[in-house]
Amino acid sequence: MHTQESPAPSADRRLSVLARHLEPSSSAAVKGHSNHFIVSAPTSGYDGKQSVFSHIVRAPEDPILGVTVAYNTDTSPVKLNLGVGAYRTEEGKPLVLNVVRQAEQLLVNDRSRIKEYLPITGLTDFNKLSAKLILGADSPAIQENRVTTVQCLSGTGSLRVGGEFLARHYDQRTIYIPQPTWGNHPKVFTLAGLSVKSYRYYDPATRGLHFQGLLEDLGSAPSGAIVLLHACAHNPTGVDPTIDQWEKIRTLMRAKGLLPFFDSAYQGFASGSLDTDAQSVRMFVADGGEVLVAQSYAKNMGLYGERVGALSIVCRNADVTSRVESQLKMVIRPMYSSPPIHGASIVAAILKDRNLYHEWTLELKAMADRIIRMRQQLFDALRARGTPGDWSHIIKQIGMFTFTGLNKEQVAFMTKEYHIYMTSDGRISMAGLSSRTVPHLTDAIHAAVTRAR
């Protein structure tokens, strides 16, 4: 039996000196046994009067999450939160999919399930099924073992792991992101070790895609640069390229050797069709070139808090794929070691069971259809009200978010006078609307627009 030994006499003397040093009455410097001076540092907080973190300044609220913070402090009965990037029911409540509850019950009832660590790469079934979902079950890349997929912490974690992998192992460290894009993109990639630049994407004049500017900017990017692409339902604008435009983007990028990195946060959630929303990714994979894809199940399965995502890298051949996976493990191991098991198990249970999968597609389409209805209702209400401007972009855009075209002053006015909360760039979550609240939003937009005229 192991017993702890008593400290050696020299250790006792050092501890005694240290104890005297820490006493309030001790001098700023005490000469120790080894003739070295122990000097109090201003950050040591030894006197108990000042925090070692006193120098830290308060960080600003996240521009997106801060909207909810402000909303929560508002006591108005008519307040409306259109900043949250999460689905809401017609009653304005969070939704847990019925199919998710069924899958969870199956997991709970399975007494053989354990809580051991997953491998570094995550749950094997989850990884295989995630790759098939985004690339297609008949994808040649999967059949030829040219795809490695690792489970990550939702879409954000998938982007971060992919970014750090590229910073370590890819010869170009510049990533081009659309302007505008999700506010977390530049932070994630900068901290991953990449240099972030932008390419034109949204045209405020048309409230649509700045396609010519996009082609010009990618055409002038250095050969081999990384390009971030939103697979569908571009956040924050809701503006997506057409299939013909995607083909032109693909042709240009392959000609210049630009590396595509897709962020797929809304597969099935935009159009209601899983295959339709994956077309852009599959076009790039079909040509045999290399592609990175970050997936999230936050929106399309409502697993926001479970943090379930995947990173897939499509390579030229199986040998390269194996080596890439080995290095992805080296990125993940010191970051979070291995991913959580519960959310991934829910996804795997749904994707591999024919009945659950079918029910999921029905619930997913119902969510997408409700968002599309909200777009139509808002557009019709603004037109009926005679609100100045062309609001057709509301029904032309797709996905959870609409880029309204409202400016910061108009947004601030709507928050102050109508208690409607959104990001300062005018982005609203269509999922936060309901038939009951559309009239209130219409009144606020009409007042904001006519007040500024």
What does the model show?
The protein has helices at 9-22, 65-73, 98-109, 124-135, 140-143, 154-169, 185-192, 211-219, 243-256, 279-286, 318-332, 342-352, 354-385, 393-396, 408-418, 438-451; strands at residues 29-31, 37-39, 80-81, 147-153, 174-179, 195-200, 202-203, 208-209, 226-230, 259-264, 291-296, 308-314, 401-403, 420-421, 427-429. It is α/β, with parallel strands linked by helices. Strands 4-12-11-10-9-5-6 form a 7-stranded mixed β-sheet. Strands 1-2 form a two-stranded antiparallel ribbon. Helix 9 (243-256) packs parallel to helix 10 (279-286). The longest helix is centred in the last third of the chain and has 32 residues, at 354-385. The model is unreliable at 1-9 and 24-35 (pLDDT under 50).
- Rg from alpha-carbon coordinates: 27 Å
Distance separating the two termini:
85 Å
| Overall geometric form | globular
Backbone structural class:
alpha/beta
**What is the number of E strands?**
15
Summarize model confidence as the mean pLDDT: 90
Put simply, the count of helices is: 16
Task: For the largest sheet, list the strands in their spatial order.
Answer: 4-12-11-10-9-5-6
Helix content: 40-55%
Share of β-strand residues: 5-15%
- Biggest pleated sheet: 7 strands, mixed
Spans where pLDDT lies below 50 across 5 or more residues: 1-9, 24-35
Short description:
The protein has helices at about 10-20, 65-75, 100-110, 125-135, 140-145, 155-170, 185-190, 210-220, 245-255, 280-285, 320-330, 340-350, 355-385, 395, 410-420, 440-450, and strands spanning about 30, 35-40, 80, 145-155, 175-180, 195-200, 200-205, 210, 225-230, 260-265, 290-295, 310-315, 400-405, 420, 425-430. With about 450 residues, it is an alpha/beta fold.
